[in-house]
TrEMBL record:
Annotated region (Disordered), positions in chain: 275-294
Family annotation (Gene3D superfamilies): Divalent-metal-dependent TIM barrel enzymes (3.20.20.150)
Family annotation (InterPro entries): MbnB/TglH/ChrH, Xyl_isomerase-like_sf
Protein name as it appears in the record: UPF0276 protein
Pfam families: MbnB_TglH_ChrH (PF05114)
PANTHER family: UPF0276 PROTEIN HI_1600
Length: 294
């Protein structure tokens, strides 16, 4: 299997959304790369694919999905894998990422990122399926931690321990979603800094930043707001451990104007620069708020 990763990809990227394509192409913002949703682009033609190819003429592109269903027990969808491989080849994708989750049960596909129990049995299962997918695609993939709203009583491993061991067994890479880690910490009490400390730096190849929602005491990883201050503080810690790791500002809903999205891109750039140069956080940027009380 080829280690098909564009190691030259660096700096800060942004989610690619159709409403911003024309503005991106006319203004050519200072963004190092864009991330496209797999499931929106595995088509034979049409405007979305055309726009993706237009963006690819000027920027590197990564592919991000939730349809691999690596934690599910249903057979892997080879037709889906064929289409992903064809799209990745067509646009010369820098890498492909998905989630540590199950999304299907039998013939029912949930379109949700559903969490796994963190057990040895689940580790064996998902590692085996990751290896099958990587063999089929001919490249290593990146797997992302989901935002979690429930835990399993029979879990025997922490999230960080599970991710680290999964990456080792499957020989895959990791995508650390800092916003999701903070949401999980708030909802379940799982220490986000412990998760970061568990992950082997050589396996973490991308970081996601996004905004969350709060409803009735529960935190939701909605990816529909600017990055919040506690997540920025956690990102500072992540960049100290995974210095220089490419970082994406992720939006899924309530997409802002491009100029507004670029504010977080620029701030992520500054955090990365400080980590690379060993600089302290400037005055006026709060460091507190990483850990939820209790």
């Amino acid at each position: 299997m080829s280690d098909y990763i564009h190691w030259s990809l660096a700096g800060t990227g942004l989610s690619l959304r159709g409403c911003n394509v024309d503005e991106i192409l006319s203004e050519r913002p200072d963004v190092r790369w864009f991330e496209a949703l797999v499931d929106a682009h595995i088509v034979d033609g049409g405007e979305r694919l055309h726009n993706l190819e237009r963006i690819r003429e000027h920027y590197p592109v990564t592919l991000h999905g939730l349809g691999l269903a690596l934690g599910s027990t249903s057979p892997l969808d080879t037709g889906y894998l064929v289409r992903i491989r064809a799209l990745a080849d067509r646009i010369d994708a820098s890498w492909i990422s998905d989630h540590i989750c199950f999304t299907s049960l039998g013939n029912c596909f949930s379109h949700e990122v559903l969490p796994l129990p963190y057990t040895e049995e689940a580790l064996d299962h998902i590692a085996s399926r990751i290896m099958q997918v990587q063999d089929f695609l001919g490249r290593r993939i990146l797997l992302e931690n989901p935002a979690r709203y429930l835990g399993y009583n029979h879990s025997t491993l922490s999230e960080g321990e599970f991710m680290a061991e999964m990456a080792e067994r499957a020989d895959c890479y990791l995508l650390l979603d800092v916003n999701n880690s903070y949401v999980t910490q708030h909802n379940l009490g799982a220490d986000a800094l412990d998760t970061i400390d568990c992950l082997p730096p050589q396996r973490v190849r991308e970081i996601h930043l996004a905004g969350y929602d709060e409803r009735d005491g529960c935190m939701l990883g909605g990816h529909n707001n600017p990055v919040r201050e506690p997540v920025w503080a956690l990102y500072e810690a992540a960049q100290k451990r995974f210095t220089g790791t490419p970082t994406l500002i992720e939006w899924e809903h309530d997409i802002p104007d491009l100029k507004d999205a670029l504010r977080d891109v620029r701030r992520a750039k500054r955090v990365m620069h400080r980590a690379q140069n060993g600089l302290r956080k400037p005055a006026g940027v709060p460091a507190q708020g990483v850990r939820s009380p209790g």
